[in-house]
Each structure stands twice: as structure tokens, then as C-alpha cells.
Design goal:
The complex is a heterodimer. Chain A is of the alpha+beta class. Chain A is built from 25 helices and 22 strands. In chain A, the strands form four sheets. Chain A has a seven-stranded mixed sheet, with helices on both faces. In chain A, β14 and β15 form a beta hairpin. The longest helix of chain A has 39 residues. Chain B has a domain of 177 residues. Chain B is mainly alpha-helical. In chain B, α1 packs parallel to α12, α3 runs antiparallel to α17 and α10 packs parallel to α18. The chains are: A alpha+beta, B mainly alpha. At the A-B interface, α9, α10, α13, α23 and α25 of A face α14, α15, α16 and α18 of B. Chain B: Keywords: Cell membrane, Ion transport, Membrane, Potassium, Potassium transport, Transmembrane, Transmembrane helix, Transport. Chain B: It is found in: Cell membrane.
Chain lengths: 710, 554
């Protein structure tokens, strides 16, 4: 949010918020303990993705993954050789399992893409062909939505679907954006300011607005979303490219090791068949990670989508993992969106209880969060039962409006008012009352401490007078302190951005436990801060929604625009949060890290797997000529053929076994790099060493049970 | 005192001596390679070769200088050998044949010192001292220079400047290698190593034939042979020859010389990147491999052959009685883990496993502690690979010393680690598959295969030791090993310097709690594991058909 928004909020009570504050809970505190993780997965998805996986056997598709392409070529070779000797069950079995290896790899990618497709379908439904009511020289005409150009003005009234992305230039309306956000509560869109952007495919629920179209048909937000979740626009990310290079290099190394083996074996006095060589090669090259690499990337984007965040590029998701500075807006992120009543300060001659009673009565007609917080405080702090407007007979309620900035009630000859200091003072003076000096003192003290004072006044038989002051203050969200401590342990510095004065900012910063704060922040200050951090080599993430945030959003390495924000902000950022919940930035960072960890963990696992495969295959190949090498058969596999086949089968099955992990991502908890490395090395490094020994042995036992084999 | 205890005590003494000089030597070298001043003698040299030592070189310029200088060295050495017969100081030896002259020239320029000739029967003092010994100095200095360029790439930010090759070359020779070699030569002379220009002497009749012995500037060449991890002996028997290595103490001292610079360079690295702890981590990985391999070697050589065979001295075959099994094991591992290739015993005579350890030592890529300079840059490349995989597991784009390891960096590192396996495996496979080359093998079966595998492993990794048994002085082996040596030396240097250039241009990422710490024991352990697994997996089939088959047979 911008400095401008901050100022607007400090005028006592804001008008009805544009969105229901549905996400005030710090994110992530779900009953499910593993924080990021959990995109559900079931075996049915595998089955459904099968046809797609088979379609992907096209060599033009396969060649994009060098590791799997080698397996593909190997499968073809072994199949050709099996055809030349149709009676050889071993050749056929190896060929079949090699093809399965390729299919399993495609399956992983297809499942990952399939989840996006489902999402895209929902979006497509929203994108029905609309008829736009275009305004030309003040005249309305009906044209198809696809015929609209940039700069066209269209009219939308209650019930109309907005035909394209644009800005409201006239009027105010409530809009149902559930088609893209999944959030059913309507939002307010109005001309001017930071809430003017509307998205094509959303529906106007009330009133009438004129929208200026800002994108061409086919390039709208919803079109881009469909492209993103479907993975159509997916490009390999920098880290994925680097990892692919390493995997290709490892593949080459093993290709060399296998291709040079026949002359060595010939010298030893044995002949290696092509089938056996290909089997050895496929077991050694990093097929596990090679098969799952693209699925991991797609699933990472998908995890963001499930959290209603759209990343415009995979690059941004990766950058999120690298972020070392988070710029967090105070309001809505660190503190609850609205200030809350914290204390009642009586003036001389009244008691706190009297103030509390009057404050509660006068706030019953105030539906703003601040007003409700007064009622809650009176109940919780002073034991005043919450009353309802209906139960007080003969009461005349004065509802809060942004114009009067007061609410109150007239009952039993008493008028009670509560509201912004200026308005209430004016109200008292109009009625010939005096404002006590200590009331003014209290107002000043509260203002200086960073709080917002509301006055409570009454007019009764003793005349109009101020009873006391309500102290409204920012309330830091639950669990934020712990969250920031976690971030600190992960090596991420948090900077709170606020329009408050430095003293107020410091008080809240201390309470929330952020590392630093930027007070009285202007968009220029924000920009300067980002550039300063980046000059030191740091990656910066921020959220923003206003047009004046756009330069900073573009400058930040990870710029998350709120969906409620302007189209300029959404253009500038590289992610859009459909929930417009700035706290989500923390989760985005975690998802970015999880993506990289999953890649690293599976790469380690894949390489560590090779040790056991050598112990299965080398003795199988050479124990006949060098009986000593039979001692390497530490798994005591039943026969050479069964040993090689077991290794190949394990190699194929481990891909399927790891599909859920690659889609969900490895479990991630915030902790220091050292602890995380130790943990992941133990699980995926040591695990990767041991698992295939066990797996291959079990498969060998099963194979040896097949009659006629082993 | 039993032989096992003696071996262990020698290992401890050696470790203590290396520990003692680690900090002073490493720090001194860091000063040498970062200083702005030129010594007077250095200025003369710069004037003489017409180089400006203050030009800042980007990586292509640095590489051009390295390659140009080395090419000149090969040509000079080649001509010197071809013309030996008509030049003075030949002791009457004739000129060397083209294939062998080419092989030897390449061998000494690449710091390999593979010798397909017998020194005392082919080379006079002019070639030995004026040609080969000079390359012993400068090829070592070139190795250190390239390592320093990589260290600068890691230490510097937002620049293309990797230093100046000519300054690095001259300083390494004048300020590091010459003074150390001078002192070392004095110590060796005191131990009884020859240092004269006496020529060939007839020393009477033994075993019914006239016995000759050569004089020569042996001690001075011996010093730089070990110190520069060169390994080319004055005599064919190399450090097993009593004139090169007369006593157990000189033996231990020579091992010390082999290891001292490569180990100390990790300190130089730490000082230059501004964190000596980073140097410790690299040192720890190198030392763990070295100690581990020595222990394994001693275990297999002492414990192998039960009972009668051991009492009969079976594991002493091919080893000098004056050194014994323990000291020979330390020497064998140290010489193969560095790119030295000097030998005080015959690796072919080691047990199957023992021979396998010397092979695997070289296959690691000469990194523990490796050749002068080449050990450090080889290890740093592997650190980059290890950081890449492990760095992902902490959830960040991998970075080493604040430098991001992206596609370009990993591509160069991957190319580096591809070179030697490709050379070793392809040349070995060709030698096994073609009709003629197998005739060079002395032994059949797995041991014969080990001879060939060893030759190309040694050449491609610029080690230079031989397994014995293989007749390498054929056109096939002279040519292919020369190619393996050339490509195995200079292709990696291309990738190292390109990587250095790419790293130097980067803006460093600040260290936070989220950064993978590369100065911790955990990382040293991880690096160790990555090296063993990656190298082990690459060569496992070949090793299985050679030394493993032999070792497991008994």
C-alpha cells in the first residue's frame, strides 16, 4: 500500500473496506503443520495423465530433456535388438522397462501440467464471448468483446460481464471477481485512485461504470493467466538451465564410461550385448532428476497458483527463493488492516466505565472495524454486555459516514457521539459546550504516541461536553514476531514500510520485531531503498498496489502486485496476488526456496542411487570372467540377468515413486542453511545411497520367483 | 620398532612438518601474488622478454599468454632434443627421435614429466639441466599462475582483470620456486644426493659386466622435480635411485617437497579471498583424501598376503628395502595424488588394491593436494560443482564465495570435469581395440589392462608416473600420451580461466544465515563425498576390470 493509503486510513475510520478483511490471520497458520507443501495428489491423476504421457514420446518433445532423450534412444535400440532375437525374454523385458522409464518421466510432466489445465478450464468458462456496449461519441453500440481496441470506452451495468481489462473512468460499482480470485465477496471499483482497475471476465453486481479498455483482446489478464497455468508460456528458468547442463555433462560422462566398456570387456574375454550396455547406461545417467525436473518446475508455479498467486515467469519464482530483503507494508501485512480501540481515557469528572458505556452505545451504529473494536473493547475490558440496536427502545441511531465522521445515538433525551476529534469538538461547540483541557491533552498524547484519538461526547441535561477519549492503535498481527524471527534465521531481513512518523514507526517496528523500518515513506524513498539494497548484491521482494508503486515493483526482484491494485502496478510486478494479501510474500519466498530444494534433493538422490546400481550390474557382467568381482555382488542377487533387470526396474519405478514428492515439493521449514543442508543431505544423500540397495534386492527376489527366470 | 609403527611415525612427522610451514608459506605466497612491487631482477626479466607486468589482463589475454608461453616451451624443448647430437654438453648421446622428442617436450611443459626414455642413457646435461629442469620451474609457475587467476576471479568483483600472466609467472619462479628449490637442493646434497658435472664413470666390474655411473646436477633437479610436482627423474629409476634419493630421511624430505606448495596454496587462496577459513575447508578436504588414501595403501600393502608370503617379503617386491613398505606407501600415494609422478617404488608391483589406489588417486584429477596450482584450481572447480548441488538443497541459487553459480559457470565447470575422463577412457579404449597397441603390454589379463589404463590416466592427469611393464616408447603411445598430456593440461586451463573471468565480473551476494557456508566441516565433508562419488562412478567399470578384479581375485 502506498503512503497515500496510509494517510487516508489515519483519518479515523475509513469507509467500508473495499474487500472483506478475510485474510487477517497470518498466512500459513493452517492446522496442517507443514507450512508450504501440500498440493494434494492421488494416484488417479497418474492414470488420467497416461494418454498425454504417451503422446509426449514424440522425439521432438523428448529432445528437450537431454537425459530422457538418451533413454528414449536407448529404448529404441534395445527394441530393435530384441526384434532380431525374438526368443530372448531378457531383451524384451529390458526394452519394455526402458520404455516404461520414458513413459513414467512423461507421466510426471503430464500430471503436473494436468493440474494447471484444470485451473485453466475454470478460467476459460469465465471468458465467455461477451457483447460489449461501446461508447462512441456518447452513443452506445453493441459490439463483440473481441472487437474492442485499446482506448475504447465501454459501459457496464449491474449483471454485465466486463468485456476486457481496463480502468474505470466514470462511476463506482461493486464487482464480482470470483472468476479469477475464487473469492465470493464483491469488491468496489471506482474511477480515479488505486481501485480503478477492472479485469475482463468479471461481473458487475451493482451500479454503472464506464471503463476504458487498456489491453487488446487475447492479451488480457485472464488470457495470460490461462497461458501461465497451462504452462504454455513456460520457459526454462536460469537455474533449471544450469541444472540441465550439469545433468547433460553427467550423462556424457556415463556415456563415455559405457561406450568404452566393450573393448575393455573384450580384453577380459567377454562380449557385452547392446541391451546390457544400454541398461547400464540408463541406470547410471541421472534419470530420476532428469525425468522429474520439468514437473518440479511446473508444480512450483502450480503451488503458487493454488495460493492464488500468479507468477508471470518461473524466473520470478526462483528469485523468490534468493530474496534477502523483504519490504513489507505496515498496514495489512504487519498490523491488522485497521486500528483498534485499546483504551478509554476519561476526562476529569467522569470514570472509565462511563466513557466505556458511552463509547459502546455510540459505536453500535458504526459498522467500521474501528467502531466494532470499540464495542469489543467495552465488552472485554469493562464487562459491558454487547447491546444491539434493536433492544434499545426509542433510540435514534446516527450511523457513521465518511462525511460526518461520527456515529452515535439519541436516546432518553441523551445524545451521545463518538468520532474524529475535529468533528466531535465541532459538535460539542455547536451545542454550546466546552471541551475540557485535559481532553485536549489526552488527544495530543495519543497522537504523539502514534495512536489515533477518538472523542466521546454527550449532550444531556448538563449540556454538551466531552466525556473521554478512545485510544485507537495499530495492532500487530498474531504470530508476526515469530514469523520475522524465522525469516531472520533463514537469513532474510525484513523492512517495514509505513507512512507514519518515525517515532510511531519505531514503536510498531519494535513490537513486531522487524529488522528495520522506513518511516514517512514516499514511493521515491521506497525506490531508493530497493536500489541501495540491490547495489549491495541483495535481492529484494515487495508488494504494492498503487500506480505510484509501479516503478518500485518493476525495480524489485520479486514484485507482487495486489489484484485490487491498478493495472499499472499489475503490469510492473512479476507476480499478482489474487487475494491481495501482502503477508503472502513470506509464503512466496518459501515456495521459491522449496522449488530449489526439491531440485537439489532429487539430484543428490539420483546421483547417490548409482552406487548400488554398479554393485548390481558390474558383478553381473564380469563375474564370469573375473570370479573375484562376484564378491561385489553384496546384495546376493539371484542371477546376472535378474540383477540387471532389477536395477532397470528399480530405476523406472523410483520415478513413479517420486512423482508425488516432485509435485508437492520437499517439506520445507524455515531454518538456517546449515541445518537445512544437514537434514537434506541425511535424507536424500544417505537415503539415496541406501534405498536402491533395498529396492533392487526386493525386486530381484520377486523376479526370481517368476518360473523360468533367475 | 615394527615396520607398521615406523610407517605411521613417518606419516606423523611428515604431517607435523607440513603443518609447521603451512601458514608462513601460504601467507608469503599470497603476498607475492598480490604485491604491487617488482624486484630489480624481475624488471630485468620483463625487459628481456619484452612484457609489461602491469598490464591488466582479461581472461582471453591471460589465456593467450599461457598458451603462447607453453607453445614456445614445447618448440624450444623439442629443438633442443632434436639437436642434442650436434650441441655441446651431450655426453655423446645422439639426438632424440621425433616422436619421443615431441612426447618429452610436451611432457615437461605440461608439468607431467612422463618419460618414455631412460634419463641416464639418453639425455646429456644440456638437455637435462638447460631444458628439462627449466621447464620444471616454469611449468610449475604456470600452474600456480592459472590458480591465482581463478582465485582472483573469486576474490574480485565487477572487473575483468585477472592480473598479469607474466608477472605471475616470473614472481612464482623468482620469489617462490627458486629460493625454495635452492634450500631444498642444499638439504638433498647434505643427504648425499649427487650434484656435479662429472659425466660418466666406469666403476669396475660387477656381475661380470662393466658398471657405469653418471654424475650430473642431480640435487638441483631433484629439488624442483618434487617441489614443482614435476616428477621427471634424472635417472630412469627415478626416486628409487640411490643418487636421487639415498636415505629414508631424503625420502621423507622429498615427499615433503612434493606436498608443501599444493597444501600451502589453500592458505594463499584463503588469504586472497579474505577468509582463511575458506582455505581451511579446501585444505581439510584435500588432507582427508590424502590421509585416507595413505592409510588404505598401508593397510593393503602391509596386510595383504597372509602369513608366509608376508614373512617372505612378498609386499616388498618392487619396493626399496631402505624405505620399506610404509614410506613407499606414503610416497606412492603422495606422488599420484599430486601431479608429480616421481616414484620410489614400482606401482606395478603393488598389490591389486594398492595399484588401484594409485590409479584412483590420479583419477580424482590431481586435487588432493594436486599439482602446484593445478591442484587448487581443480579442487575449486569441484567445489563449484558440489556447491551447485548442495546449494540447491538450502533453497537458494547456488553461490560460492558470494558468486552465483549459474548456467555459464556450471557449463565451464562441467566441461572441465569432462576433459580427463574423456581422454583417459577414449585413449584406453582405442589402445585395447586397435590391433597393435596391446603388444606393448607386459602382462595378460587384468594387470595388462591396468598398465594401459594407468598410462593414459597418468598422462591425461599430467601425473607422469608409469605403472612399469608397458613399453610406451612406440609411435602410438608417444603420440597418444603426448596428446593426452597436451589436452589434459591446456583444455582445463581454458575452462578455468573462462570461469575466472565470468566470476570476476559478478556482483557478490552478501552472506546471510540463508547462505550455504563453505567454510564449515559439513561442506568439506560434502565436497569429499561429491568427489569420491562422481569420480568413482566415472571410472568404476574400468577399475573393476583392472585393479579390482586383480585385488578381489586373491
Amino acid at each position: 500500500m502506498t503512503a497515500r493509503n496510509e494517510n487516508r486510513e489515519s483519518e479515523m475510520s475509513t469507509p467500508t473496506p473495499t474487500r472483506a478483511p478475510h485474510s487477517d490471520l497470518p498466512t500459513g497458520h493452517r492446522p496442517d503443520e507443514s507450512r508450504v507443501g501440500a498440493g494434494h495428489f492421488d494416484a488417479g491423476q497418474l492414470l488420467a495423465a497416461l494418454p498425454q504421457a504417451v503422446r509426449k514420446l514424440d522425439p521432438r518433445v523428448m529432445v528437450r530433456s537431454p537425459v530422457m532423450f538418451v533413454v528414449w534412444v536407448g529404448s529404441l535400440l534395445t527394441t530393435v535388438f530384441a526384434c532380431t532375437d525374438p526368443g530372448d525374454w531378457f531383451g524384451w523385458a529390458i526394452s519394455a522397462w526402458l520404455w516404461l522409464t520414458v513413459v513414467f518421466a512423461n507421466l510426471a510432466e503430464a500430471v503436473a501440467e494436468g493440474r494447471g489445465k484444470a485451473q485453466a478450464e475454470t478460467l476459460r468458462r469465465a471468458k465467455t464471448d461477451t457483447v460489449a456496449r461501446r461508447l462512441t461519441n456518447g452513443r452506445e453500440e453493441q459490439v463483440p468483446g473481441t472487437a474492442l481496441g485499446i482506448g475504447d470506452l465501454v459501459v457496464c451495468e449491474a449483471g454485465d460481464v466486463i468485456p476486457g481489462d481496463g480502468d474505470v473512468v466514470e462511476g463506482v460499482a461493486s464487482v464480482d471477481e470470483s472468476a479469477i480470485t475464487g473469492e465470493s465477496a464483491p469488491v468496489i471499483r471506482e474511477s480515479g485512485g488505486d481501485r480503478s482497475a477492472v479485469t475482463g471476465g468479471t461481473r458487475v453486481l451493482s451500479d454503472r461504470v464506464v471503463v476504458r479498455i487498456t489491453t487488446r483482446p487475447g492479451e488480457t489478464f485472464i488470457d495470460r493467466m490461462i497461458g501461465l497455468v497451462e504452462g504454455a508460456a513456460r520457459q526454462k528458468t536460469p537455474n533449471e538451465i544450469a541444472l540441465n547442463i550439469l545433468l547433460a555433462a553427467l550423462t556424457l560422462v556415463f556415456l563415455l564410461a559405457c561406450a568404452t566398456l566393450p573393448p575393455f570387456a573384450a580384453w577380459a574375454g567377454t562380449r557385452l550385448t547392446m541391451t546390457v550396455l544400454v541398461a547400464l547406461l540408463v541406470c547410471l545417467i541421472p534419470t530420476t532428476i532428469g525425468a522429474l525436473l520439468s514437473a518440479i518446475g511446473i508444480a512450483g508455479m502450480d503451488r503458487l497458483v493454488q495460493r492464488n498467486v500468479l507468477a508471470m515467469s518461473g524466473r520470478a519464482v526462483e528469485a523468490a527463493g534468493d530474496v534477502s530483503t523483504l519490504l513489507l507494508d505496515k498496514t495489512g501485512t504487519i498490523t491488522l488492516g485497521n486500528r483498534q480501540a485499546a483504551a478509554f481515557v476519561p476526562v476529569r469528572g467522569t470514570t472509565e466505565a462511563e466513557v466505556a458505556d458511552a463509547a459502546q452505545l455510540s459505536s453500535l451504529a458504526d459498522e467500521t472495524p474501528e467502531g466494532r473494536s470499540v464495542v469489543v473493547l467495552a465488552k472485554g475490558g469493562y464487562g459491558l454486555r454487547e447491546r444491539h440496536q434493536g433492544e434499545i427502545v426509542g433510540a435514534e441511531w446516527v450511523a457513521f459516514t465518511a462525511q460526518t465522521r461520527m456515529s452515535g445515538v439519541d436516546v432518553d433525551g441523551r445524545s451521545i457521539r463518538k468520532g474524529a476529534a475535529g468533528s466531535v469538538v465541532a459538535w460539542v461547540r455547536e451545542r454550546g459546550g466546552e471541551v475540557a483541557e485535559d481532553a485536549e491533552d489526552a488527544v495530543r498524547t495519543i497522537s504523539e504516541s502514534g495512536g489515533t484519538p477518538l472523542l466521546v461526547a454527550v449532550e444531556d441535561e448538563r449540556g454538551a461536553r466531552v466525556l473521554g477519549v478512545i485510544h485507537l492503535k495499530d495492532v500487530v498481527k498474531d504470530g508476526m514476531r515469530e514469523r520475522f524471527a524465522e525469516l531472520r534465521r533463514m537469513g532474510i531481513r525484513t523492512v517495514m514500510i509505513t507512512g507514519d512518523n518515525p517515532r510511531t514507526a519505531k514503536a510498531i517496528a519494535d513490537e513486531a520485531g522487524v529488522d528495520d523500518f522506513l518511516a514517512e515513506a514516499t514511493p521515491e524513498d521506497k525506490m531508493a531503498l530497493i536500489q541501495r539494497e540491490q547495489a549491495g548484491g541483495k535481492l529484494v521482494a515487495m508488494t504494492g498496489d498503487g500506480t505510484n508503486d509501479a516503478p518500485a515493483l518493476a525495480q524489485a526482484d520479486v514484485g507482487v502486485a495486489m489484484n485490487t491494485g491498478t493495472s499499472a502496478a499489475k503490469e510492473a510486478g512479476n507476480m499478482v496476488d489474487l487475494d491481495s494479501n501482502p503477508t503472502k510474500l513470506i509464503e512466496i519466498v518459501e515456495i521459491g526456496k522449496q522449488l530449489l530444494i526439491t531440485r537439489g534433493a532429487l539430484t543428490t538422490f539420483s546421483i547417490a542411487n548409482d552406487v548400488a546400481k554398479y554393485f548390481a550390474i558390474i558383478p553381473a557382467l564380469f563375474a564370469a570372467v573375473y570370479p573375484g568381482l562376484g564378491r561385489l555382488n553384496i546384495m546376493a542377487l539371484s542371477s546376472p540377468d535378474s540383477a540387471i533387470l532389477s536395477a532397470v526396474v528399480f530405476n523406472a519405478l523410483i520415478i513413479v515413486a517420486l512423482v508425488p514428492l516432485s509435485l508437492r515439493g520437499v517439506r520445507y521449514r524455515p531454518m538456517s542453511a546449515d541445518r537445512m543442508l544437514r537434514r537434506n543431505l541425511a535424507i536424500y544423500g544417505l537415503g539415496g545411497l541406501v534405498a536402491p540397495f533395498v529396492g533392487i534386492k526386493i525386486i530381484d527376489l520377486l523376479i526370481s520367483l517368476i518360473p523360468g527366470i533367475g | 620398532m615394527g615396520p607398521v609403527l615406523a610407517g605411521v611415525l613417518q606419516l606423523l612427522a611428515l604431517t607435523a612438518a607440513l603443518a609447521l610451514v603451512y601458514v608462513p608459506l601460504g601467507t608469503y605466497m599470497a603476498r607475492v601474488y598480490t604485491s604491487d612491487r617488482h624486484l630489480r631482477v624481475e624488471k630485468w626479466i620483463y625487459k628481456g622478454i619484452g612484457a609489461d607486468p602491469d598490464t591488466r589482463m582479461r581472461w582471453p589475454a591471460y589465456l593467450r599468454a599461457v598458451l603462447g608461453f607453453s607453445l614456445a616451451g614445447v618448440l624450444f624443448l623439442y629443438l633442443l632434443q632434436r639437436l642434442q647430437g650436434v650441441l655441446p654438453g651431450s655426453l655423446g648421446f645422439s639426438s632424440i627421435e621425433p616422436a619421443q622428442a615431441f612426447n618429452t617436450a610436451v611432457s615437461f611443459v605440461t608439468n607431467t614429466n612422463w618419460q618414455s626414455y631412460a634419463g641416464e642413457q639418453a639425455m646429456g646435461p644440456l638437455v637435462q639441466t638447460g631444458g628439462l629442469a627449466v621447464q620444471n620451474f616454469v611449468s610449475a609457475a604456470v600452474g600456480i599462475a592459472v590458480a591465482m587467476a581463478l582465485v582472483r576471479g573469486l576474490a574480485r568483483t565487477r572487473t575483468g582483470d585477472l592480473g598479469n600472466f607474466w608477472a605471475d609467472l616470473v614472481r612464482g619462479t623468482v620469489r617462490v620456486l627458486l629460493p625454495l628449490a635452492f634450500v631444498a637442493a642444499l638439504v638433498l646434497v647434505a643427504c648425499g644426493v649427487l650434484q656435479n658435472f662429472a659425466g660418466i664413470h666406469e666403476v669396475g666390474q660387477f656381475l661380470g659386466a662393466p658398471q657405469q655411473w653418471n654424475g650430473g646436477a642431480v640435487a638441483s633437479q631433484e629439488a624442483i622435480k618434487e617441489l614443482g610436482t614435476n616428477g621427471g627423474g634424472y635417472f630412469n629409476a627415478n626416486s628409487a635411485h640411490p643418487f636421487e634419493n639415498p636415505t629414508p630421511f631424503s625420502n621423507l624430505f622429498e615427499i615433503f617437497l612434493i606436498l608443501v606448495i599444493p597444501f600451502a596454496l589453500t592458505r594463499t587462496f584463503g588469504v586472497m579471498v579474505g577468509s582463511v577459513r575458506q582455505g581451511w575447508a579446501i585444505l581439510a578436504t584435500m588432507a582427508a583424501i590424502w590421509v585416507g588414501f595413505v592409510a588404505l595403501m598401508m593397510w593393503t600393502e602391509f596386510a595383504h598376503h597372509e602369513g608366509a608370503l608376508r614373512i617372505a617379503g612378498a609386499s616388498l617386491e618392487g619396493k626399496e628395502l631402505r624405505f620399506g613398505v610404509g614410506a613407499s606407501s606414503i610416497f606412492a600415494v603422495s606422488t599420484t595424488l599430486t601431479s608429480t609422478g616421481a616414484v620410489d617404488s614400482f606401482h606395478s608391483s603393488y598389490t591389486g588394491f594398492g595399484g588401484g589406489i594409485t590409479l584412483l588417486s590420479m583419477m580424482l584429477g590431481e586435487i588432493a593436494p594436486g599439482g602446484t596450482g593445478s591442484g587448487l584450481y581443480g579442487m575449486l572447480i569441484l567445489a563449484v560443482i558440489a556447491v551447485f548441488i548442495a546449494g540447491l538443497m538450502v533453497g537458494r541459487t547456488p553461490e560460492y564465495l558470494g558468486k552465483k553459480i549459474g548456467a555459464r559457470e556450471i557449463k565451464l565447470a562441467a566441461l572441465y570435469i569432462l576433459v580427463t575422463p574423456a581422454l583417459v577412457l577414449v585413449f584406453t579404449a582405442l589402445s585395447m581395440a586397435l590391433p597393435t597397441p596391446p603388444h606393448s603390454m607386459l602382462n595378460p589379463g587384468e594387470h595388462g589392462f591396468s598398465e594401459v589404463l594407468y598410462a593414459f590416466t597418468s598422462a591425461a592427469n599430467n601425473n607422469g608416473s608409469a605403472f612399469a611393464g608397458l613399453d610406451a616408447n612406440t609411435d602410438w603411445y608417444n603420440t597418444t600420451t603426448a596428446l593426452a598430456m597436451l589436452l589434459g593440461r591446456f583444455l582445463p586451463m581454458v575452462f578455468v580461466l573462462a570461469l575466472a573471468g565470468s566470476l570476476a565480473g559478478q556482483q557478490p551476494v552478501p552472506v546471510t544465515a540463508g547462505t550455504l557456508r563453505t567454510d564449515k566441516p559439513l561442506f568439506a565433508g560434502l565436497l569429499l563425498g561429491a568427489i569420491l562419488i562422481i569420480v568413482g562412478l566415472t571410472y568404476f567399470p574400468a577399475l573393476a576390470l583392472g585393479p579390482l578384479a586383480e585385488g578381489l581375485a586373491s
